[in-house]
Design a protein that fits this description.
The protein is an alpha+beta fold. Helices cover 31% and strands 19% of the residues. It folds into three domains: 8-120, no CATH class; 124-194, GMP Synthetase, Chain A, domain 3, CATH 3.30.300; 267-368, no CATH class.
Length: 382
């Protein structure tokens, strides 16, 4: 069952089920048959995914809506995101112990009745989430309810919450079951998962990575900011979840690789005029900045090669008279304002002088003609 012109796509966008951390670039190519050919990855609401086994060898394609075995009982509805060998690699990457946590079964391609029941359940999620929050306030529990997700057959609801301490919600579950008429599961999540479920716009101006394509949240340390020469300012390097931004890890490997060619910043450079201490470095220019012992208010801008030369001389016991011979002056290129059309005049947008009016042109013409007549008369009189 492929995608059709129905409201299913609208529901999937609302639930965020089209997101995936891995894209199967070979989905149009038939893979060779193997023991893993019947493995399928199915994605549900936003960042929730699970693996299933296609025991009946149903012909599936990426994007198909399927009915799969639910948690403990019933069935759930999700979208196929991957199948075959890549699913086996994902299971291995996530360290899934299939003996302790067996892979559940894929029942069938979702029918119209399955999809309608699932869409009816999804339509009530927002309203039930508001009611559930009010019940928590009445019970005065120290927990924050983040999201609710209904199973595809509308027989079970999973409530996601965050809490700093252990919460006794046994009475809360009973009241939820009485009010909503479904089996209830309370699942505690972290602040990163909370941000992924709520969503939002990051400081970069784009939608949060955790709510669009990321489903794994690797640990981020302050060393990632230090390697990239970023200021350790919590307000700038923290995301909406209050933790360090996940994007600090995106370019970390490139910075660590580039920093291998830089000398140790703990070494002080010695000259007869004094020692120079390290201040900062520019990874892209390959330049290091040191305090200038001659003029304390200025910085020494030295290339990597020159810093290595000074360190090598100091190790031999040779101390240069000054650092002036090691400073390389960078030629300042003249900045030109050119665009693709070759318009290099930045004053081209200024208002042009107004053309003289017709009457002014006539007066000017009469004056010039009068001057010419007077000149002619004077020449004839002579």
């Amino acid at each position: 069952m492929g995608c059709s012109n129905c409201s299913t796509c609208e529901v999937s966008e609302k639930r965020g089920s089209a997101n995936s951390t891995v894209f199967d670039w070979l989905y149009q190519i038939d893979a060779p048959k193997s023991d893993n050919s019947n493995l399928v990855e199915v994605q549900f609401k936003r960042d929730r995914k699970d693996f299933y086994i296609n025991t009946d060898n149903i012909d599936l394609n990426s994007g198909d809506w399927v009915a799969v075995q639910g948690d403990k009982s019933g069935h759930d509805i999700g979208k196929v995101t991957m199948k075959g060998e890549l699913v086996a690699l994902q299971i291995k990457r996530k360290n899934r112990d299939v003996e302790k946590d067996p892979i559940k079964k894929l029942y069938r391609i979702a029918s119209e009745n399955d999809l309608q029941k699932w869409k009816d359940a999804v339509a009530n999620e927002d309203e039930i989430l508001v009611k559930a929050k009010r019940i928590i306030e009445d019970h005065k529990l120290e927990m924050k309810l983040t999201d609710v997700e209904f199973q595809g057959d509308n027989s079970k609801a999973t409530f996601y919450y965050t809490a700093e301490k252990r919460v006794d919600f046994r009475e809360l579950i009973r009241e939820y079951s009485r009010n909503f008429g479904v089996r209830v599961e309370m699942r505690q999540i972290g602040v990163r998962q909370e941000a992924a479920k709520i969503g939002g716009i990051g400081s970069c101006g784009r939608e949060l990575c955790c709510s669009t394509w990321m489903t794994d949240f690797p640990s981020v340390s302050t060393n990632a900011a230090r390697y990239q020469q970023l200021s350790i300012n919590p307000q700038k390097i923290s995301g909406q979840c209050g933790r360090l931004k996940c994007c600090l890890n995106f370019e970390l490997d490139g910075y660590t690789e580039a920093l291998k060619g830089f000398p140790s910043t703990k070494v002080q450079l010695k000259s007869k005029k004094g020692s120079a201490k390290f201040v900062k470095l520019d990874v892209f220019k390959g330049v290091l900045f040191y305090f200038n012992p001659d003029t304390p208010g200025d910085f020494l801008e030295l290339t990597i090669d020159n810093v290595n030369k000074i360190i090598a001389l100091n190790k031999k016991g040779e101390i240069p008279a000054s650092f002036e011979s090691f400073i390389v002056e960078v030629e300042q290129k003249e900045v030109t304002f050119e665009d693709a059309m070759g318009q290099d005049n930045i004053g081209r947008f200024d208002k042009k002088k107004a053309k003289p009016k017709r009457q002014d042109r006539r007066n000017k013409f009469k004056k010039n003609r009068a001057k010419a007549r007077n000149k002619k008369k004077s020449s004839e009189s002579k």
